[in-house]
């Protein structure tokens, strides 16, 4: 029976981690998978997480099961940051559950949409490759539109045309901030229009917020999500703490549902619990418990937010330096200065991407996506010079 299973290609993005690790060159540069790095190239555990883990070790008195919803203290503690401190439950219309990472959040959000009757999901491309894989695995039809124009700005015409065709049987997946892979985000005016269009068409929004705080700030990065939620009766929100708490391998995420009438919320969430039970039963506790301890403690919260500010400032410095360089060979680097988060796309051919890897030890996704946090003040000049050589 098992011989029926054909060999599958390794996930291209995750395969880069191993390729980079195996490269003996001292001056290699990892611009692949999306993890934050310091100016020395390290991905340290947040000091706030270390403090929370110490407290957890000291105070945790049981590891007995919590249930498919996970740590609801964690789920609720995040809500003021995501939905706004003034009315985090939108008058009792929003609640959620813990998931294994943002991927678990997206998976559950889309599975809930499908179970509720959604047949098609719209998404701007390029997008995080796992989005399309999850939709395909769930048997949803994917309809795509252009996320950005060649000029490097959001393609609002493409989005308008897509939403004009979409209807109440459809969902639309939108990146809340720090678009992965382009770094090209919607402006406030764009979000205002998008919110109105989604509401007018009756499409179910699925909002993926995986990089809150890595773009312009925790509040600013929530603008789009909050704007859409204010305009529509129902929505699903997938959230990741993997980046903004540096919890990558601990898999810390959540899914939230917003319903029209608070009386519907328990029924919707009970479907989430059932889907989780059948898939992973219960999410891993440790990371979410650490995040909860941070958010329950004002001093640890400040420590975490300060660390997030340092990360954002460093990424902005890298982006400013790239933009300042102006160009590298045929590649215009100026737009990278105005983009957000960890990622930007460089218009490189597959041959050029391979040449950067084999000849210069520079690792990036096959789409030309770079993780700008992989650049440091020590390697950025080499990167720009090698890019110029390859793209000249
Ligand atoms: C990325 O896009 O690099 C991250 O979201 C990591 C992942 O799971 O793909």
TrEMBL record:
Pfam families: Aminotran_1_2 (PF00155)
Cofactors, names only: pyridoxal 5'-phosphate
Sequence ranges assigned to domain Aminotransferase class I/classII large in this UniProt record: 27-385
Source domain of life: Bacteria
Gene3D superfamilies registered for this protein in UniProt: Aspartate Aminotransferase, domain 1, Type I PLP-dependent aspartate aminotransferase-like (Major domain)
The keyword Transferase belongs to this UniProt entry's keyword annotation: yes
GO cellular component: cytosol
GO terms classed as biological process: L-phenylalanine biosynthetic process from chorismate via phenylpyruvate
Gene Ontology molecular-function annotations: identical protein binding; L-aspartate:2-oxoglutarate aminotransferase activity; L-tyrosine-2-oxoglutarate transaminase activity; pyridoxal phosphate binding
Keywords noted in UniProt: Aminotransferase, Pyridoxal phosphate, Transferase
Protein family according to the UniProt entry: Belongs to the class-I pyridoxal-phosphate-dependent aminotransferase family.
Assembly notes: Homodimer.
Matching PANTHER family: ASPARTATE AMINOTRANSFERASE (PTHR11879), ASPARTATE AMINOTRANSFERASE, MITOCHONDRIAL (PTHR11879:SF22)
Name recorded for this polypeptide: Aromatic amino acid aminotransferase
């Amino acid at each position: 029976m098992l011989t029926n299973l054909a060999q599958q290609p390794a996930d291209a993005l995750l395969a880069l981690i191993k390729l980079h690790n195996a490269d003996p060159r001292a001056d290699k540069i990892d611009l692949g998978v999306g993890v934050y790095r310091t100016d020395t190239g390290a991905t340290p555990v947040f000091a706030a997480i270390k403090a929370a883990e110490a407290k957890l070790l000291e105070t945790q008195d049981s590891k007995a099961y919590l249930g498919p919803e996970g740590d609801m203290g964690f789920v609720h503690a995040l809500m003021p940051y995501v939905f706004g401190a003034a009315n985090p439950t939108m008058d009792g219309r929003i609640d959620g559950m813990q998931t294994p990472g943002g991927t678990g959040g997206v998976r559950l959000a889309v599975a809930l949409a499908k179970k509720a009757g959604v047949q098609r999901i719209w998404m701007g491309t390029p997008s995080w490759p796992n989005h399309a894989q999850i939709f395909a695995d769930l048997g949803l039809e994917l309809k795509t539109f252009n996320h950005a124009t060649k000029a490097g700005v959001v393609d609002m015409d493409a989005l308008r045309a897509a939403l004009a065709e979409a209807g109440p049987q459809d969902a639309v997946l939108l990146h809340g901030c720090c678009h992965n892979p382009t770094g090209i985000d919607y402006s406030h005016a764009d979000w205002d229009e998008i919110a109105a269009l989604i509401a007018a068409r009756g499409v179910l929004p699925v909002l993926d917020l995986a990089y809150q705080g890595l773009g312009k700030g925790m509040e600013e990065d929530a603008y789009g999500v909050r704007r859409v939620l204010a305009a529509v009766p129902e929505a699903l929100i997938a959230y990741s703490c993997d980046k903004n708490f540096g919890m990558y391998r601990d898999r810390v995420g959540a899914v939230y549902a917003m319903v029209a009438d608070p009386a519907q919320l328990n029924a919707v969430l009970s479907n989430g619990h059932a889907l989780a039970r059948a898939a992973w039963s219960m999410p891993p506790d440790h990371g979410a418990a650490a995040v909860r301890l941070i958010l329950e403690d004002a001093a640890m919260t400040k420590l975490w937010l300060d660390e997030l500010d340092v990360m954002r400032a460093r990424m902005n410095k890298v982006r400013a330096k790239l933009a300042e360089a102006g160009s590298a060979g045929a590649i215009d680097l100026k737009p990278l200065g105005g983009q957000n988060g960890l990622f930007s796309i460089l218009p490189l051919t597959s041959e050029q991407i391979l040449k950067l890897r084999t000849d210069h030890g520079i690792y990036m996704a096959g789409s030309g996506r770079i993780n700008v946090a992989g650049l440091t003040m020590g390697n950025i000049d080499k990167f720009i010079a090698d890019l110029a050589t390859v793209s000249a």
